[in-house]
Amino acid sequence: MARTTAAYVNCNEEDEMEIRGYSLCCWKLALVSLGTVCSGGFLLLFLYWLPELSVKWTCRAVPLRDAQLVLLRTTDEFQTWSRERVCSLSAPGTDPLGFPQPPESKRPLCPAGLTDDTGCEERLLSPLTCGEQAQVRFFTHRNVRYLWATEAQAFRRLTALDRGQPCSSLHSGHGGGLLRSTQDYRKMFYGANKIDVQVPSLAHLLIKEVLNPFYIFQAFSVLLWSLDDYYLYASTILFMSFVSIGSSLYTIRKQYVLLHGMVSAHNVVRVTVVRGPYEMEAVFSTELVPGDVLLVPPEGLTMPCDAVLLSGTAIVNESMLTGESVPVTKTALPVPAQEGGPLRDPVYDPDEHKRHTLFCGTSVIQTRYYSGEPVRALVIRTGFSTSKGQLVCSILFPKPTDFRLFRDAFRFLLCLVGVAGIGMLYSVIRSIQQAEPVGRIVLESLDILTITVPPALPAAMTAGVVYAQRRLRRKQIFSLSPQRINLCGQLNLMCFDKTGTLTEDGLDFWGFVQAQEGRFLPIGRDVCEPRLASSPFVAAMAACHSLTTLEGRLSGDPLDLRMFAATGWILEEPTQEETALHDRIQPTVVHPPGCRLPAPSEAPTGDKELLDLMRGSQIGILAQYPFSSGLRRMSVVTRTLGEKHLVAYMKGAPETVGSLCRKETVPDDFSSVLESYTRGGLRVIALASRRLESKYMWHKIHHVSRDAVEVNMDFLGFVLLQNKLKPETVPILAELRRACIRSVMVTGDNLLTAISVGRECGMIPSKGKVVLTEALPPRDGQPATIHWQYADEFPTADPAVSTGEEQQGPPEIKLLVDDADPPPAAQPAVPDISYHFAMGGKSFAVLLDHFPDLLPKLLLCGTIYARMAPDQKTQLVEALQKMDYCVGMCGDGANDCGALKRAQAGISLSELEASVASPFTSKTPSIACVPDLIREGRAALVTSFCVFKFMSLYSIIQYLSVLLLYSVLGNLGDVQYLFIDMAIILSLAFSMSLNSAWRELVPQRPPSSLVSPQLLLSVLSQILLSLAFQVGAFLLVQQQLWYPQEEESCGGLPTNGSAPPNATAPQEMGGQDPDSVRSYENTTLFFISCFQYVFVALAFSKGRPFRQPTQTNGLFLASIVLVSSFLLLLLLWPLPALDRLFQLACIPYEWRLVLLLLAFSNLVLSLCLENFVCDCDILWQQLCYGRRREDYPRQAAFPQLELGEVAPVSSCCRQAVPRTKYQRLAQELLFDPDWPPQPKTSTRARVPPAETHA
């Protein structure tokens, strides 16, 4: 359907959905009711599974304004359908953020203290007459409410104060709180403020679980087997189904209980809200609505909603959201002010202003407040609209995982249904020829369907994932999305954050470089020298931070802690009692050790008030502008004792700080000096200061915007910090490279620093050439331009480090044109030069917008991405996924949340067992968890394939046995079915999944599809082999001389005997005649098929290179030995009791030896086919990769291109084009004469950007 003809909600967002309106249709409803009665309720069950058809078959399409039901379909690749009922509510208004319409007035009332008339009227959608009640139509989908907008004639998501609100409006229009009537009015739209995770009743869960297609098929099978007199087998399967349902209900209910307990802690708490300038009211948190102003107590609380700070500061623990245990300082949202120019009033956004926002579920540890005006926070979102509410929704309604294995498995099951149809047709024809009763014909044909389609297949395929999850838990790796474990087995590219991931969290102070009068001074090592005590450089280091004192210890960002510790200064914060004695917030003060302050009588006039606030200190921190990832800087406003003017200090990225400083204070060699230090891997922080004009008074500094302060600064110099690699980084990256998994660095640090760390950790080899990519946006009518520059050779690393890196690092891999060719054991000679592209966040943004054709090439060859904002990290992951990479992301869970969620495997290094930032969480704070996760993912993936092939062969083998017995009017017995399914299939299927992961990562990756030649050949060859042996044994037994003889009694020792001629005679309908089971054919096929089940399990149980060898799986070997021993006992030493139980015919001992010989031959052929044909790497390499290897130009060596080449084949055509985009592009680049770009050249966008029109 064309997009222009459909209506959408959440347009251009991640959860965009197409929406259609429907209304009940009487005649359609009557027809469906009739069909339900005629089908015995099956039609209703079918419509329950397919909501799309349930709506279309019972309703008629109508415009959305008249809809009683809406049909929703996601616009992503999954195209998920859902239906919701349209409801309505009566309210004295239609605007959720408006005000109630009182009977005596047509105008809405404004709350006390509201002076902005536009804030009161701007959101009214339609005026109401006196006392009129409006009908507001809405529907709720996944805990999100959508309201009908009459003017737009569309449904819109119910939003609150988190969208489209200027910062000034939050202060002036909403800072006075809400009247009780307004709160009640808004509550009608937003509901109670609670994340209500209802724990479903057992009856509800039972009905929902039983209606699963798996259990419906089980119930159908049990009914069919009961009608066929297989009571023992049917009752056993029914009992196991009840056990499975009970276990599933227990697990699901336990998850609901845990989630309910996690969110209920803050659902009902007591809070104080503002009702006007002088009125406060204590209410339950469930009463809060957007627009309420609540008071945050000094001792803190767990936030029941999302709120923005209007006054004061707060220390918050956000580990629940970000996974970081370091407390964060939240400051009041600045009030935009007009400073000699147009008013800059930004629109409030929770992500951009997160340093001013208290998020639901986070813990406020303590606050610092004003006397008479405590810390106030404006409620912006409630309930499931909050950050925690959205996370809970993502847990309750997880996004489907698109994995080819499950799609191919479903298609294969459809093929099995087709095979069953052929068998049913054969059975019907054969039964008609034998003149069997109609009822018997129907039962036998349907019985073939239950045999061919194994109902236990889904459970058996997930066993490997469950076992892998348990092994990961023992390694302190926890998963919120177990289904993603299989995806980890396909990872071929890993993105790593730098700070805290590849390098240590802590920083070592290395040195500093001051700048005076536009030039750099010699490098210094100790900032505690007496001559520097009063310098602005040291004052900036000591004052420009967001540290706070918790339980007597400094707490805050590790960088702030290290810089402050280097100064040796002391930080003091006033107590709550001291703060309450003053009109304004008591400042944090810093001073050198042993600093003596002048007595109050010695202080200059006018400073006595401030001196009281700063007693015992030298510099008071009056205001903070927190660090922002987008701005890449932070600043503070301070006042030094004895001075009248305020001083602002700023620190941040050198490029950012330098651009905000006066040119005369920035040395001419700024860039070259910066480059000299970043090349060495040092982290460089720039400092600047500004003496503020007298108009900036310390009493009013909190209302000044940071843009007015952070300008015309004086450059002070650089602080040099050393960020050491973690011990695990180099060997782990070397292991990933040997496994042909690309490693990419994505960091917010300086580009040259990132390149240096990339060289040190082995991402960039010692002979690698780095191509710096600088993309500039269009300006002055000129198109966007890319400048190419080759980075100079870096200084040689420490000999010891270099030696260790050569020993641990992987050898270079020569790029081959043919795809999926694993590197040989002995590596060929590598080119002297390899190329790695590096770019910054600004350049990446320009490439996204203006160079769509060039971007894939850079992504294919890019290794370093620096100065990347959090949203750019997410965009990078998405761009790599569009090139068909299977992307993993490993970060610390703070600024990497978006990328961690977007990647196929996001790994958060956190102390929590379950970080909501990513699907996987490692309590071990190093990247050592990455190979473990990939190994377990590969093992789980291979296990899923093994189990799938085994269950498929089980169905086909039993299908062949039953068809052959049907041809002589026979069948398998009740106990025989039970023994095969319970003792053989279940024990082998679940025990073969216990193989743990192989200890090494190999270059090969396991297949991701069931349509690969090797897998198809494996399944088909085993099917043909099983068919050959069963048909051969079936025909051979009928050619024996003793076949028509009458059966003799078998004693303890085997004797010759035979079944009577009428052993295969037709039975009467309604009972199972034992003679229809006991026959020579039945006994022969029973033994042959049982041995085949064991043999295919042994053949399909793969070990190396992805799993531990089969001999390490003790339970599986024990199952093999026990089942085989019991079968040998039945075959070679028959016991009358067991023969009667299994309904086996007494066959000659010579024939038993023949069956043993046939079984042994089957075993040998099965193992040979699987190990020397289907799973022979040398043979498949010769067949599929035997074409001539093309040489490539020496200057076009890109070691990162071949890392995705060692993958399972999907086609044996020697000239087949690779399926993945990055492999096709890699082949093209090998012979591109213009790639890589020449140094000191430029590339312009082909088409200048068109001018945008409003």
Task: Write a concise synopsis of the structure shown.
By secondary structure, the protein is α+β, with helices and mostly antiparallel strands.
Structure description:
With 1254 residues, this protein is of the alpha+beta class. It folds into six domains: 1-98 and 133-158, no CATH class; 160-196 and 267-336 and 346-397, Calcium-transporting ATPase, cytoplasmic transduction domain A, CATH 2.70.150; 202-265; 405-476 and 939-1042 and 1075-1181, Calcium-transporting ATPase, transmembrane domain (Up-down Bundle); 493-502 and 726-793 and 832-923, 3-Layer(aba) Sandwich (Rossmann fold), CATH 3.40.50.1000; 503-594 and 617-725, 3-Layer(aba) Sandwich (Calcium-transporting ATPase, cytoplasmic domain N). It is built from 39 helices and 40 strands. The strands form seven sheets. It has an eleven-stranded mixed β-sheet with strand order 19-39-38-37-20-32-36-35-33-34-40, with helices on both faces. A nine-stranded antiparallel β-sheet has the order 22-21-31-30-29-28-27-26-25. Strands 11-10-12-18-13-16 form a six-stranded antiparallel β-sheet, with no helix packed on it. A hairpin with a 2-residue loop joins strand 23 (548-550) and strand 24 (553-555). Helix 13 (438-452) runs antiparallel to helix 31 and helix 34 (1080-1100) packs parallel to helix 37 (1149-1174). The longest helix has 38 residues, at 929-966. The chain is globular, with a radius of gyration of 37 Å. The two termini are 29 Å apart.
